[in-house]
Protein backbone atom coordinates (compact mmCIF):
# COMPACT_ATOMS: atom_id res chain seq x y z
CA UNK A 1 0.00 0.00 0.00
CA UNK A 2 2.88 2.39 0.64
CA UNK A 3 4.02 2.16 -2.98
CA UNK A 4 0.49 2.63 -4.24
CA UNK A 5 -0.17 5.65 -2.07
CA UNK A 6 3.14 7.24 -2.95
CA UNK A 7 2.47 6.74 -6.65
CA UNK A 8 -1.04 8.13 -6.40
CA UNK A 9 0.19 11.24 -4.61
CA UNK A 10 3.04 11.71 -7.07
CA UNK A 11 0.76 11.41 -10.07
CA UNK A 12 -1.99 13.67 -8.71
CA UNK A 13 -0.19 16.76 -9.99
CA UNK A 14 -0.07 15.31 -13.52
CA UNK A 15 -3.74 14.46 -13.98
CA UNK A 16 -5.08 17.72 -15.36
CA UNK A 17 -1.90 19.42 -16.56
CA UNK A 18 -0.65 16.87 -19.08
CA UNK A 19 -1.64 19.17 -21.94
CA UNK A 20 0.67 21.80 -20.47
CA UNK A 21 3.65 19.47 -21.05
CA UNK A 22 4.40 19.33 -17.39
CA UNK A 23 5.28 16.03 -15.77
CA UNK A 24 8.68 14.50 -15.11
CA UNK A 25 11.82 14.81 -17.18
CA UNK A 26 12.55 12.11 -19.74
CA UNK A 27 16.20 12.03 -18.67
CA UNK A 28 15.63 9.69 -15.74
CA UNK A 29 15.83 5.87 -15.70
CA UNK A 30 12.18 5.39 -16.59
CA UNK A 31 11.82 5.89 -20.32
CA UNK A 32 12.14 3.51 -23.25
CA UNK A 33 14.03 0.98 -21.08
CA UNK A 34 11.32 0.80 -18.43
CA UNK A 35 10.04 -2.80 -18.03
CA UNK A 36 6.46 -1.71 -18.77
CA UNK A 37 7.15 0.42 -21.87
CA UNK A 38 5.34 -1.03 -24.86
CA UNK A 39 3.22 -3.44 -22.83
CA UNK A 40 -0.58 -3.49 -22.57
CA UNK A 41 -2.48 -4.23 -19.36
CA UNK A 42 -6.03 -5.57 -19.19
CA UNK A 43 -7.39 -3.69 -16.16
CA UNK A 44 -10.37 -5.93 -15.40
CA UNK A 45 -8.48 -9.14 -16.15
CA UNK A 46 -5.37 -8.11 -14.26
CA UNK A 47 -3.04 -9.43 -16.96
CA UNK A 48 -0.79 -8.39 -19.79
CA UNK A 49 -2.28 -8.92 -23.24
CA UNK A 50 -0.82 -8.71 -26.74
CA UNK A 51 -1.58 -5.46 -28.57
CA UNK A 52 -3.44 -7.50 -31.17
CA UNK A 53 -6.08 -8.38 -28.58
CA UNK A 54 -6.85 -4.73 -27.91
CA UNK A 55 -6.96 -3.89 -31.61
CA UNK A 56 -9.29 -6.84 -32.12
CA UNK A 57 -11.61 -5.42 -29.48
CA UNK A 58 -11.46 -2.05 -31.24
CA UNK A 59 -12.46 -3.60 -34.56
CA UNK A 60 -15.60 -5.00 -32.90
CA UNK A 61 -16.52 -1.91 -30.84
CA UNK A 62 -18.89 0.88 -31.85
CA UNK A 63 -17.04 3.53 -29.84
CA UNK A 64 -13.26 3.41 -29.38
CA UNK A 65 -11.72 6.10 -27.18
CA UNK A 66 -7.94 6.42 -27.44
CA UNK A 67 -6.93 8.54 -24.46
CA UNK A 68 -3.68 10.35 -25.10
CA UNK A 69 -1.21 12.62 -23.42
CA UNK A 70 -1.38 15.34 -26.01
CA UNK A 71 2.35 15.99 -26.54
CA UNK A 72 3.47 12.36 -26.63
CA UNK A 73 4.39 11.39 -30.18
CA UNK A 74 4.21 7.68 -29.37
CA UNK A 75 0.56 8.05 -28.40
CA UNK A 76 -0.25 9.48 -31.80
CA UNK A 77 1.61 6.64 -33.52
CA UNK A 78 -0.50 4.14 -31.58
CA UNK A 79 -3.70 5.96 -32.53
CA UNK A 80 -2.75 5.78 -36.21
CA UNK A 81 -2.05 2.08 -35.81
CA UNK A 82 -5.54 1.51 -34.42
CA UNK A 83 -7.22 3.43 -37.24
CA UNK A 84 -5.19 1.69 -39.95
CA UNK A 85 -5.98 -1.75 -38.49
CA UNK A 86 -9.69 -0.99 -38.28
CA UNK A 87 -9.80 0.15 -41.90
CA UNK A 88 -7.89 -2.94 -43.05
CA UNK A 89 -10.61 -4.99 -41.37
CA UNK A 90 -13.44 -3.30 -43.21
CA UNK A 91 -14.30 -0.52 -40.79
CA UNK A 92 -14.70 3.12 -41.84
CA UNK A 93 -14.95 4.85 -38.47
CA UNK A 94 -15.48 8.55 -38.01
CA UNK A 95 -12.47 10.28 -36.49
CA UNK A 96 -13.92 12.43 -33.71
CA UNK A 97 -11.32 14.87 -32.43
CA UNK A 98 -11.08 17.01 -29.32
CA UNK A 99 -8.55 19.17 -31.14
CA UNK A 100 -11.16 20.96 -33.29
CA UNK A 101 -14.04 23.10 -31.97
CA UNK A 102 -17.55 22.11 -33.00
CA UNK A 103 -18.10 25.55 -34.53
CA UNK A 104 -15.43 24.68 -37.14
CA UNK A 105 -17.36 21.68 -38.51
CA UNK A 106 -18.90 23.44 -41.51
CA UNK A 107 -15.53 24.83 -42.57
CA UNK A 108 -13.92 21.43 -42.06
CA UNK A 109 -16.55 19.79 -44.25
CA UNK A 110 -15.93 22.31 -46.99
CA UNK A 111 -12.21 21.65 -46.94
CA UNK A 112 -12.55 17.86 -46.84
CA UNK A 113 -15.12 17.79 -49.64
CA UNK A 114 -13.31 20.37 -51.76
CA UNK A 115 -11.20 19.83 -54.86
CA UNK A 116 -7.82 20.71 -53.40
CA UNK A 117 -4.92 18.29 -53.04
CA UNK A 118 -4.43 16.44 -49.78
CA UNK A 119 -1.51 18.69 -48.86
CA UNK A 120 -3.65 21.77 -49.54
CA UNK A 121 -6.47 20.36 -47.41
CA UNK A 122 -4.07 19.57 -44.58
CA UNK A 123 -2.73 23.10 -44.68
CA UNK A 124 -6.24 24.54 -44.43
CA UNK A 125 -7.26 22.13 -41.67
CA UNK A 126 -4.18 23.05 -39.67
CA UNK A 127 -5.47 26.62 -39.51
CA UNK A 128 -8.72 25.42 -37.94
CA UNK A 129 -7.13 23.41 -35.15
CA UNK A 130 -7.65 25.04 -31.78
CA UNK A 131 -4.75 27.26 -30.73
CA UNK A 132 -2.32 25.54 -28.39
CA UNK A 133 -2.41 22.13 -30.06
CA UNK A 134 0.70 20.83 -31.81
CA UNK A 135 -0.53 20.31 -35.37
CA UNK A 136 2.48 18.23 -36.56
CA UNK A 137 1.62 15.55 -34.01
CA UNK A 138 -1.90 15.20 -35.44
CA UNK A 139 -1.10 15.70 -39.12
CA UNK A 140 -0.43 12.02 -39.84
CA UNK A 141 -3.77 10.96 -38.37
CA UNK A 142 -5.73 13.66 -40.20
CA UNK A 143 -3.90 12.85 -43.42
CA UNK A 144 -4.89 9.19 -43.07
CA UNK A 145 -8.50 10.23 -42.52
CA UNK A 146 -8.42 12.22 -45.77
CA UNK A 147 -6.75 9.42 -47.70
CA UNK A 148 -9.12 6.76 -46.35
CA UNK A 149 -12.17 9.01 -46.70
CA UNK A 150 -13.06 8.75 -43.03
CA UNK A 151 -15.49 11.31 -41.60
CA UNK A 152 -13.62 14.00 -39.68
CA UNK A 153 -15.65 15.37 -36.76
CA UNK A 154 -14.91 18.34 -34.50
CA UNK A 155 -15.84 17.62 -30.88
CA UNK A 156 -14.62 20.34 -28.54
CA UNK A 157 -16.87 22.96 -26.99
CA UNK A 158 -15.79 26.49 -27.96
CA UNK A 159 -14.00 28.37 -25.21
CA UNK A 160 -16.63 31.08 -24.89
CA UNK A 161 -19.38 28.50 -24.38
CA UNK A 162 -17.24 26.80 -21.74
CA UNK A 163 -16.76 30.14 -19.99
CA UNK A 164 -20.51 30.74 -19.99
CA UNK A 165 -21.15 27.37 -18.36
CA UNK A 166 -18.45 28.07 -15.78
CA UNK A 167 -20.03 31.43 -14.94
CA UNK A 168 -23.72 30.65 -15.14
CA UNK A 169 -24.25 26.89 -15.09
CA UNK A 170 -25.83 24.48 -17.55
CA UNK A 171 -28.98 26.54 -18.17
CA UNK A 172 -26.99 28.57 -20.71
CA UNK A 173 -26.94 25.50 -22.98
CA UNK A 174 -30.61 26.04 -23.80
CA UNK A 175 -33.94 24.48 -22.87
CA UNK A 176 -33.72 20.72 -22.51
CA UNK A 177 -30.03 20.46 -23.40
CA UNK A 178 -28.85 19.45 -19.93
CA UNK A 179 -31.27 16.51 -20.01
CA UNK A 180 -30.60 15.60 -23.64
CA UNK A 181 -26.85 15.51 -23.04
CA UNK A 182 -27.35 13.43 -19.86
CA UNK A 183 -25.31 15.94 -17.86
CA UNK A 184 -27.46 15.81 -14.77
CA UNK A 185 -28.67 12.20 -14.68
CA UNK A 186 -25.16 10.77 -14.97
CA UNK A 187 -23.81 12.79 -12.07
CA UNK A 188 -23.53 12.11 -8.34
CA UNK A 189 -22.03 14.01 -5.39
CA UNK A 190 -19.22 11.44 -5.27
CA UNK A 191 -18.36 11.95 -8.93
CA UNK A 192 -18.35 15.69 -8.39
CA UNK A 193 -16.08 15.37 -5.37
CA UNK A 194 -13.67 13.12 -7.24
CA UNK A 195 -13.45 15.26 -10.37
CA UNK A 196 -13.08 18.46 -8.32
CA UNK A 197 -10.34 16.86 -6.25
CA UNK A 198 -8.39 15.84 -9.33
CA UNK A 199 -8.82 19.22 -10.98
CA UNK A 200 -7.53 20.91 -7.83
CA UNK A 201 -4.52 18.58 -7.70
CA UNK A 202 -3.89 18.99 -11.40
CA UNK A 203 -3.71 22.75 -10.95
CA UNK A 204 -1.24 22.30 -8.08
CA UNK A 205 -3.61 23.78 -5.51
CA UNK A 206 -3.46 27.19 -7.19
CA UNK A 207 -7.23 27.64 -7.55
CA UNK A 208 -9.82 28.44 -4.91
CA UNK A 209 -12.62 25.98 -4.21
CA UNK A 210 -15.27 27.98 -6.03
CA UNK A 211 -13.00 28.15 -9.08
CA UNK A 212 -12.47 24.39 -8.98
CA UNK A 213 -16.25 23.90 -9.05
CA UNK A 214 -16.53 26.17 -12.08
CA UNK A 215 -13.82 24.21 -13.90
CA UNK A 216 -15.61 20.99 -12.97
CA UNK A 217 -18.75 22.25 -14.73
CA UNK A 218 -16.68 23.12 -17.78
CA UNK A 219 -15.17 19.65 -17.89
CA UNK A 220 -18.59 18.01 -17.62
CA UNK A 221 -20.06 19.95 -20.52
CA UNK A 222 -17.03 19.28 -22.70
CA UNK A 223 -17.29 15.54 -22.07
CA UNK A 224 -21.05 15.53 -22.69
CA UNK A 225 -20.67 17.42 -25.98
CA UNK A 226 -17.87 15.11 -27.14
CA UNK A 227 -20.15 12.17 -26.45
CA UNK A 228 -22.93 13.90 -28.38
CA UNK A 229 -20.73 14.32 -31.45
CA UNK A 230 -19.68 10.68 -31.25
CA UNK A 231 -23.31 9.56 -31.05
CA UNK A 232 -24.17 11.65 -34.09
CA UNK A 233 -21.32 10.04 -36.05
CA UNK A 234 -21.74 6.45 -34.88
CA UNK A 235 -23.25 4.82 -37.98
CA UNK A 236 -19.95 3.28 -39.10
CA UNK A 237 -18.34 3.45 -35.69
CA UNK A 238 -16.21 6.08 -33.99
CA UNK A 239 -12.61 6.54 -32.94
CA UNK A 240 -12.32 9.31 -30.36
CA UNK A 241 -9.01 11.17 -30.24
CA UNK A 242 -9.16 12.71 -26.78
CA UNK A 243 -7.09 13.38 -23.71
CA UNK A 244 -6.84 10.42 -21.36
CA UNK A 245 -9.01 12.11 -18.75
CA UNK A 246 -11.83 12.40 -21.27
CA UNK A 247 -11.59 8.65 -21.95
CA UNK A 248 -12.26 7.70 -18.32
CA UNK A 249 -15.29 5.48 -17.93
CA UNK A 250 -16.28 6.89 -14.54
CA UNK A 251 -16.05 10.64 -15.21
CA UNK A 252 -15.46 11.21 -18.90
CA UNK A 253 -17.03 10.71 -22.32
CA UNK A 254 -17.88 6.98 -21.86
CA UNK A 255 -20.14 7.90 -18.94
CA UNK A 256 -22.37 9.94 -21.25
CA UNK A 257 -22.19 7.45 -24.11
CA UNK A 258 -23.32 4.63 -21.82
CA UNK A 259 -26.19 6.72 -20.45
CA UNK A 260 -27.51 7.63 -23.89
CA UNK A 261 -26.69 4.47 -25.85
CA UNK A 262 -26.51 1.60 -23.36
CA UNK A 263 -26.83 -0.95 -26.13
CA UNK A 264 -23.58 0.09 -27.83
CA UNK A 265 -20.09 -1.29 -27.15
CA UNK A 266 -17.54 1.16 -25.77
CA UNK A 267 -13.80 0.54 -25.55
CA UNK A 268 -11.53 2.85 -23.54
CA UNK A 269 -7.77 2.65 -23.99
CA UNK A 270 -5.67 4.85 -21.72
CA UNK A 271 -2.14 5.53 -22.92
CA UNK A 272 0.03 5.82 -19.83
CA UNK A 273 3.54 7.17 -19.54
CA UNK A 274 5.81 5.08 -17.34
CA UNK A 275 7.17 6.34 -14.03
CA UNK A 276 8.83 4.67 -11.05
CA UNK A 277 6.48 1.74 -10.37
CA UNK A 278 7.09 -1.42 -12.37
CA UNK A 279 3.93 -3.12 -11.10
CA UNK A 280 1.06 -2.46 -13.55
CA UNK A 281 -1.43 -2.73 -10.71
CA UNK A 282 0.09 0.41 -9.20
CA UNK A 283 -1.10 2.30 -12.27
CA UNK A 284 -4.35 0.39 -12.67
CA UNK A 285 -5.46 1.10 -9.09
CA UNK A 286 -4.63 4.79 -9.27
CA UNK A 287 -6.79 7.49 -10.80
CA UNK A 288 -4.45 7.29 -13.80
CA UNK A 289 -5.67 3.93 -14.97
CA UNK A 290 -8.41 2.14 -13.10
CA UNK A 291 -11.21 3.53 -15.24
CA UNK A 292 -10.05 2.26 -18.64
CA UNK A 293 -10.42 -1.14 -20.24
CA UNK A 294 -6.74 -1.27 -21.15
CA UNK A 295 -3.59 0.63 -20.24
CA UNK A 296 -1.01 0.97 -23.00
CA UNK A 297 2.33 1.86 -21.40
CA UNK A 298 4.72 4.17 -23.24
CA UNK A 299 7.87 6.23 -22.65
CA UNK A 300 7.46 9.97 -22.27
CA UNK A 301 9.03 12.98 -23.99
CA UNK A 302 11.33 15.51 -22.38
CA UNK A 303 9.52 18.04 -20.22
CA UNK A 304 10.19 20.36 -17.30
CA UNK A 305 10.87 18.41 -14.13
CA UNK A 306 8.43 20.30 -11.92
CA UNK A 307 4.78 19.82 -12.93
CA UNK A 308 3.76 23.05 -11.23
CA UNK A 309 6.33 25.30 -12.92
CA UNK A 310 4.74 28.02 -14.95
CA UNK A 311 1.16 27.38 -13.85
CA UNK A 312 -0.30 30.68 -12.62
CA UNK A 313 -3.29 30.91 -10.34
CA UNK A 314 -5.96 30.69 -13.08
CA UNK A 315 -9.35 32.30 -13.44
CA UNK A 316 -12.15 29.76 -13.31
CA UNK A 317 -13.93 31.00 -16.38
CA UNK A 318 -10.88 30.56 -18.62
CA UNK A 319 -9.62 27.18 -17.44
CA UNK A 320 -10.20 23.74 -18.87
CA UNK A 321 -8.95 20.35 -17.76
CA UNK A 322 -7.09 18.29 -20.32
UniProtKB/TrEMBL annotation:
Leader sequence segment: 1-26
Domain named Haem-binding uptake Tiki superfamily ChaN: residues: 57-257
A Pfam family recorded for this sequence: Cofac_haem_bdg
InterPro entries noted in UniProt: Cofac_haem-bd_dom, Fe3_uptake_reg_CjrA_prd
Entry protein name: Haem-binding uptake Tiki superfamily ChaN domain-containing protein
Keyword Signal on entry: yes
UniProt entry tagged with the keyword Signal: yes
CDD domains the record matches: ChanN-like
PROSITE patterns per the UniProt record, alphabetical: PROKAR_LIPOPROTEIN
Keywords assigned by UniProt, alphabetized: Signal
